[in-house]
């Protein structure tokens, strides 16, 4: 069977940086540790005045095409995943293809283009579509370009404001990939939920606390569904477990739940019994509430156990390093979690070929998806080439006053004229609106 998976990854971060503990927290009258310890965030990325989901996506895609030496003819499909689209008809992928055609010979006229929507899950769903297209033999030897791009802004003073971010991840999906091969097995947890939505409005309506519970419930369902096809999972099966990361504190909650689930009826549960007892079984309780309470207590104890802490430090913590410094990239978020883990492994010289990751994606509204990925020989070269640290370091640090202006510039309801904070170089920029209210772009040398 042909292996299909991710052959190359590139990112593009919004070029501005907001320091959460030092710049944002004091103005919000909050303790800086709410951000660093509670949510697990150091800073957020924001788009400069001339950036948006198209420029970030096109810039990530151009980096990827240049590095791989691709021309438009090599790409048979361009799917953009976003929850920040500005057009209900014309997909963002057409804008991005238009940008790329400005700088490459040839065109994408024979590439199938689309836009995927299911909140933050859409990036993973686009990879899924590409996988199916290649497996069905419809790709004519060509690759799929998947771009997850978002400007994750919340209404001013919404609790979600702390978790904002902006950036794009471009991924090339091919046969015989160079980074990871995707499993055929998948699990879904899906239900009609009203936790986070944007009913024809730019900023989301969010029930924050409930969204956290819905994330956990759907992720658990997806893991159970995955196990129904793959067999039981065990913590030792996976080198890393990248989750959708709206903020690292969310993953802390998902990880303990996942570990409890995976260790049930295993030697790890037996080892822990003398210290924290066995996991509560629903049959031993008179009501669902009592059982849930007992599970909660068990997980509180579990978090303090050495076995759990070591597993978390090795398997989960390495997935959070980029997210900690950029905030939520919505559709791109789980994909920067995977990249963080692989960068960490690279720095430590880990030999990962043949090892597995379990990937937990999530989108509000709500659906979780779980699948496995096998890291393939040669992954180091392709992960090393991604300029993560340089991109993060070159961002311009904004003051709180500047943050307020930047939020207004990207608010579709407001018209404000603000000078750019950085100078674009060798990248696509937004230049204004055309006669049919379309957004226009140019490549700046
Ligand atoms: N020191 C250490 N920790 C502190 C602290 C301090 N001084 N102050 C607060 N904390 C901790 C809190 O205890 C809490 O941690 P726990 O949940 O582990 O107890 C954490 O910091 C956050 O504090 P609050 O709960 O008080 O924060 P909040 O009420 O202001 O908002 C939020 C938190 C609801 C997540 C909010 O940021 C939000 O609405 N975010 C947007 C929605 C979201 O991201 N939901 C996640 C699931 S949905 C999803 O994943 C899709 C998506 O991308 C949006």
UniProtKB/TrEMBL annotation:
One of its GO terms (biological process) is acetyl-CoA metabolic process. GO terms for molecular function: hydroxymethylglutaryl-CoA synthase activity. Residues 195-407 form the Hydroxymethylglutaryl-coenzyme A synthase C-terminal domain. Its EC number is 2.3.3.10. Keywords: Acyltransferase, Isoprene biosynthesis, Transferase. Residues 4-175 form the Hydroxymethylglutaryl-coenzyme A synthase N-terminal domain. Pfam families: HMG_CoA_synt_C, HMG_CoA_synt_N. SUPFAM superfamilies: Thiolase-like (SSF53901). Belongs to the thiolase-like superfamily. HMG-CoA synthase family. This is Hydroxymethylglutaryl-CoA synthase. It comes from Halogeometricum borinquense (strain ATCC 700274 / DSM 11551 / JCM 10706 / KCTC 4070 / PR3).
């Amino acid at each position: 069977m042909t292996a299909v998976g991710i052959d190359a990854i590139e990112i593009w971060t919004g070029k501005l940086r907001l320091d959460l503990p030092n710049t944002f927290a004091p103005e919000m009258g909050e303790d800086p540790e709410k951000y660093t310890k509670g949510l697990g965030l150091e800073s957020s990325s924001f788009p400069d005045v001339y950036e948006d989901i198209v420029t970030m996506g096109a810039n990530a895609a151009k980096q990827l095409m240049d590095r791989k030496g691709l021309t438009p003819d090599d790409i048979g499909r361009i799917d953009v995943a976003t929850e920040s689209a500005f057009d209900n008809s014309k997909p963002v992928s057409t804008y991005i293809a238009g940008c790329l055609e400005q700088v490459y010979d040839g065109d994408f006229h024979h590439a199938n283009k689309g836009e995927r929507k299911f909140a933050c899950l859409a990036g993973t769903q686009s990879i899924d579509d590409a996988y199916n297209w290649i497996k069905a033999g419809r790709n004519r030897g060509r690759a799929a370009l998947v771009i997850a791009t978002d400007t994750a802004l919340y209404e001013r003073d919404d609790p979600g404001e702390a978790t904002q971010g902006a950036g794009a991840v471009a991924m090339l999906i091919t046969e015989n990939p160079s980074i990871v091969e995707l499993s055929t097995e998948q699990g879904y947890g899906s239900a009609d939920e009203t936790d986070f939505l944007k009913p024809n409005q730019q900023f989301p309506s969010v029930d924050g606390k409930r969204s956290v519970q819905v994330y956990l419930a759907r992720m658990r369902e997806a893991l159970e569904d995955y196990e129904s096809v793959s067999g039981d999972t065990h913590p030792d099966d996976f080198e890393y477990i990248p989750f959708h990361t709206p903020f690292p504190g969310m993953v802390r909650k998902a990880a303990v739940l996942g570990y409890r689930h995976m260790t049930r009826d295993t030697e790890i549960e037996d080892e822990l019994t003398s210290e924290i007892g066995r996991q509560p079984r629903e049959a031993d309780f008179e009501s669902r509430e009592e059982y849930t309470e007992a599970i909660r207590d068990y997980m509180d104890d579990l978090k303090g156990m050495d076995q759990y802490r070591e597993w978390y430090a090795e398997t989960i913590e390495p997935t959070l390093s980029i997210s900690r410094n950029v905030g939520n990239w919505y559709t791109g978020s789980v994909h920067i979690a995977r990249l963080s883990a692989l960068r960490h492994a690279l720095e430590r010289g880990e030999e990962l070929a043949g090892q597995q990751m379990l990937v937990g994606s999530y989108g509000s509204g709500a659906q979780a998806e779980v699948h496995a990925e096998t890291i393939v020989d040669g992954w180091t070269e392709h992960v090393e080439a991604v300029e993560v640290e340089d991109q993060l370091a070159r961002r311009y640090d904004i003051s709180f006053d500047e943050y307020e202006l930047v939020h207004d510039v990207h608010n579709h309801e407001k018209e404000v004229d603000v000078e750019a904070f950085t100078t674009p170089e060798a990248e696509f920029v937004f230049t204004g609106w055309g006669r049919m209210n379309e957004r226009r772009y140019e490549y700046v040398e």
